[in-house]
Amino acid sequence: MSDKASAPALSPKIPKPTLDKLARLGIKTQLDLVLHLPLRYEDETRLTPINDLQPGVSAQVEGEITHCEIVFRPRRTLIAQLQDDSGEILYLRFLNFYPSQQKQLSIGKRIRALGEPRMGFYGIEMVHPKCRAVGEASELKSTLTPIYPTVAGLPQATLSKQIQLALKAVQLTDTLPTEFLQRLHLPDFASSVKVLHNPPPDILEQDLLERTHPAWQRIKFDELLAQQLSMRAHHRKRQQRKAPALENKYNLINKLINSLPFSLTAAQDKVFSEIRADLQRTHPMQRLLQGDVGSGKTVVAALAALQAIESGYQVALMAPTEILAEQHYRKLHEWLTPLNIEPVWLSGSLKKKDKTEAIARIAEGSTPLAIGTHALFQSQVEFHKLGLVIVDEQHKFGVQQRLALRGKGAAESNPDNNSTNSEIIPHQLMMSATPIPRTLAMSYYADLDVSVIDQLPPGRTPIVTKLINDARRDEVIERVRIACTEGKQAYWVCPLIDESEALQLQTALDTHATLTAAFPELNIGLVHGKLGSAEKAEVMAAFKANQLQLLVATTVIEVGVDVPNASLMVIDHAERMGLAQLHQLRGRVGRGSAQSLCILLFQNPLSELARARLKVIYENTDGFEIARQDMLIRGPGELLGARQSGMPLLRFADLEQDARMLEFARDMADELLKDHPESASAHLRRWMANKPDYLQA
Questions:
Q1: Which is deepest, 69, 428, 471, 515, by most CB within 10 Å?
Q2: Burial class (CB in 10 A: 0-12, 13-18, 19+), 589
């Protein structure tokens, strides 16, 4: 059978329970079995004399059981003595065991034991080694033994058997032209897969484990190439869709620029010119605008919105949290009302009457700009003529949510031409204040156009970051009092506790009560997720107007809050927060000309993960470097919001380790599509046949 047209289905002889477990591993065809590659290997091709064993170095020994007993000191343990031809004794120790194991290790039985030796109380020992009975003529294995990723109830032996059957059933033709392989010095696909499933004993195990062997290089390149081809295909598909051409009239844009109390940075000018050109085209823009905290993405989004509004279209701006969406609403209301543009606010917390009125204004087109949360893509919301969708913190939305909002414009964008209504979709601008490392952008956002605001507005002073142990909390409280009595303002951010809103709220209430008692001379505000929209807005407005000197808050202030006079940030239990969150929170200060300080208050003992995060945030202020380190610590999945986005993660390639290979794959994808379209299609079918269509949004 060939995997060219469609991968052969799994054998009907496989029992239903086994099929279900294979499905949990993403295995639905015989080709999936072939591509289910080992995590590691065990060497059962050779025997090591007991007297040659090295502590910490895995090895296989063979000998006779000379003693076996169950001891109860300090807990029930099975201990056996294994003696080989060298005369040395190896102790085999089992803390959890079955009667069948005890029988297998009875005196006089000849067994092979594979494990990692170490020095024990009686001498050299293996704890829970892999054991099997052998006869006098039992041959050693001729290849390393692969250990596969599996699920409970699916033994290695069952999985290995099905993989070996699939290797015989599937004809592994090569999808790549020979000249490609020669140019990149890569082996053919079939031999690469067979080597990884059945590696000969002379192969360096380290090369397999570290995935530097040529066979692994081929598999990793294939995976990266498939990802790049898939994104190019989606990019081409998008180029064939229709979008409204939003003319660049500049009247409202110039008015806004001239009214601002600051000048645009060169970086802001550059990215807006990229967006402006995209919006004038007749195929939909799908651009990611990224920039560090405080780099000025909102004003760029406002300029893009004005270009759509001047062309007679509506704009929807969606943010993941109510406080961030409301900050956008207040900022844009302040900027655009003098231009006779009245934005509408829509969120789930609005009263029924206000919500009905907002929905009506959006539907009839009496407002050109709708700003809100998830409420914007609810079924009852209909846009009159949607031309541009702006999604802030896009990685926090699910792919279906982004598609639902974009779909609001699919039928309404061109009401004068019924024949092409269904083909016309609005332009989309996605924003992220979590900078994306270059390799991640090349890999997962290769189908998008990316704009980067790579400079901060002038006049910003660098933020000083200090790590302070919770034992010195009283000193921190005193520092806050001094700063506030000197006319500065401060934030005190309460920790995230076990993802529990109720506990987080209680901590915020307790902290507010403690600080209010400690500072009777100060006005102290409190903001948390359970406050009503009006109450939150009132507290934030009072803080911005310097009527409050100290703001106690939960992490709802992570993004979007801009108070230039606030120059001190205390993050309580900083060890409980992620790097992106710490960087975002720290970015709430340092927005004025005064020297700003961020205190990360932590409590011992610190886990290794928490220690690594705090070290990164202490040593770095550049968001791109923090994001790169975050990717190394967490992996790309969490950084991308892969659970929300539905993006399948790379199984074999490593973005940091294989960055050079990723660049090759990116270049080769274009060449393959241009000169070898049939090879490109075959390659995509092999690697992406069971993947969801995750790149639409």
A1: 428
A2: buried
Residue 330 parent element (H or E)? helix 322-336
Q: Are 25 and 37 in contact (CB under 8 A)?
A: no
* H or E element that contains 336: helix 322-336
What is the domain range of residue 123?
Answer: 46-140
Beta strands 40-42; 145-147: pairing state: antiparallel
What residues in the chain have per-residue pLDDT under 50? 1-2, 4-5, 411-422, 498-499, 642-646, 692-697
Please tell me whether residues 377 and 519 are part of one structural domain. no
Decide which of 86, 106, 140 is a domain's last residue: 140
b/e burial code for range 152-170 (CB count within 10 A of at least 16 → b): eebeeebbbebbebbbebb
CB contact at 8 A, 550 and 492: yes
pLDDT digits (tens, 9 = 90+) for 401-424: 556 666 666 544 444 444 344 468
Which residues are 62's β-sheet partners?
A: 112
Tokens 């939960």 sit on residue = 554
Same structural domain for residues 335 and 417? Answer: yes
Q: Are residues 50 and 132 in the same domain?
A: yes
Q: Which of 292, 325, 338, 284 is nearest to 308 (CA)?
A: 284
Residue 108 corresponds to which tokens in the numbers above? 């006089």
